[in-house]
From TrEMBL:
Its main location: cytoplasm. The active site is at 259 (nucleophile). Catalyzes the formation of sulfite from adenosine 5'-phosphosulfate (APS) using thioredoxin as an electron donor. Belongs to the PAPS reductase family. CysH subfamily. The keyword Cytoplasm applies. This is Adenosine 5'-phosphosulfate reductase. The gene is cysH. It comes from Corynebacterium vitaeruminis DSM 20294.
Amino acid sequence: MTFTLPTSPVLGSRAPLRDPGISPEGPKTTAPLPEDVRRTNAELVEKWADSLYDAKAGDILDWAREHTSGDLVVTLSMENTVLAELAHDHLPDADFLFLDTEYHFPETLEVADLVERRYANKLVRATAQLSRKQQDATYGANLYRSNPTACCRMRKVEPLAVALSDYQGWITGLRRADGPTRATAPALSLDKTGRLKISPIITWTLEDTERFIAERDLIVHPLTKQNYPSIGCATCTLPVLEGQDPRSGRWAGNAKTECGLHT
């Protein structure tokens, strides 16, 4: 997408900054599901959500492979590669999806490259409508500080929404142990578009995750060994002290606790 910032006739000065409540032009929502698929998804959740609530990760993904007829996508933050490994074992035909916000730690991008080389699943890299530089020019520098909710919306929520258009459902890395906002999250639910939202490691603790990584010799994000148990954008993530909520380093100093992908 080509973006040209308009100038005013006075000395070629830049136009006023745009209201961050208004996203840039372009696609930002998920395409509607066919009504029969939407209905089928709702029936699956109604029938199976309770029995899958505390099910094992492999069983949840085997269920997904058996009971869904449409394409599924596995969302990867690259904080760890557990979902990639599980999908390799149980959903070999599923795509991988990585939200490249352009604000990631270099180590996160390196993990994404390693995942693409290690696994046969197609890796889709979703990006925002505007580049980082274009966003600064349109909304002002460092929007992640002045309005982190708007920044997350434009660089995470909307790109994910667009990317999900091709799929019947998506696989997430949600864990109830990650914090109070996720303490009762289901393993199987519907998102706002009627797509299946499947969270196979929902019952796992951080220790369970680390054990699986060690047992499978998975790709390790180096920052997870430097007090970063939860990793988002480099601009908005700090290390945490032992015993703190694993997500307390996300948007530190801000009341924000979720980027909006799961709310």
